[in-house]
Each structure stands twice: as C-alpha cells, then as structure tokens.
Amino acid sequence: MKLLTVTEVASSLSISESLVYRLKDEGKLRCVRIGKGAIRFSEEDVMEYLNSCVIQIRLEPGKAPSRKGKPFDHLNGERLLESWQRRGVRIDRQGGRNVRTSE
Fold first, then answer.
1. pLDDT at 71
2. Range of 36's domain?
3. What is the per-residue DSSP string for 59-85?
4. CATH code, 11
5. Residue 15 within a domain
6. Contact in structure between 23 and 29 (CB atoms under 8 Å)
7. How sure is the predictor about 61, in pLDDT bands with cuts at 50, 70 and 90?
C-alpha cells in the first residue's frame, strides 16, 4: 500500500494543501498519523473521497435542463435596499433619483 503526503494529495487533486487539511479535519478524507506529526493518506482513501464527490445529472436524450422561474427572479429590490440599510449604507431617495446632482 502506497501512502501519500499532504503535498502529493493536494497536487494529485489540484487543490491546496490547506483544503486537504480541512477535509481531514472535517472527517471527509481519512488519514493515518505516523508518530506524533506525520500525516499520510492511502490511495484507496483518496479514491473513496473522490467517489463521494461525484455528481450525477440525469437528462433525457435530446432535452436540455429546465430552469425553474425566470433568470434573476430571486432578486428583489426592496430586500436589497433593506440589506444595504442594515449594513449602515445611507440611501436617500430624493425625487426618485438615485444619485444627488449639482442642481
């Protein structure tokens, strides 16, 4: 059985070493601790993690995926305004204009 280092796992998955550590800490990627500090990953555990990440999309032949609703229908001007106000942005709507002018 070949054991891989954090750097080797990160390189083979094209991710950062910090993400490898985070996956380990979250229990998503199993590892072996050798002694007090060396962390190693088996190739089988890395493959098992990859298999858990697979996303299956089922489409009928000749059909494009359907979109529910219209594009950007989740955007709501009033909610956006309230959100900005909660963050402390001052919004003055004078005469329906968005920006003050030098009148």
1. 62
2. 3-52
3. --TT-PPP--S-TTTT--HHHHHHHHH
4. 1.10.1660.10
5. yes
6. yes
7. confident
Number of domains within the chain: 1
Q: What six digits make up the tokens of 67?
A: 């979109």
Residues in the chain: 103
52-88 burial by CB neighbour count: b if 16+ within 10 A, else e? Answer: eeeeeeeeeeeeeeeeeeeeeeeeeeeeeeeeeeeee
Q: Which of 26, 28, 18, 30 has its CA nearest to residue 53?
A: 28
Identify the CA nearest to 9 among candidates 45, 62, 63, 57: 45
- Give the model confidence (pLDDT) of 9-33 as tens digits: 999 999 999 999 999 999 999 999 9
Question: Does 45 map to a domain?
Answer: yes
Which pair of structure tokens corresponds to residue 60? 């009928």
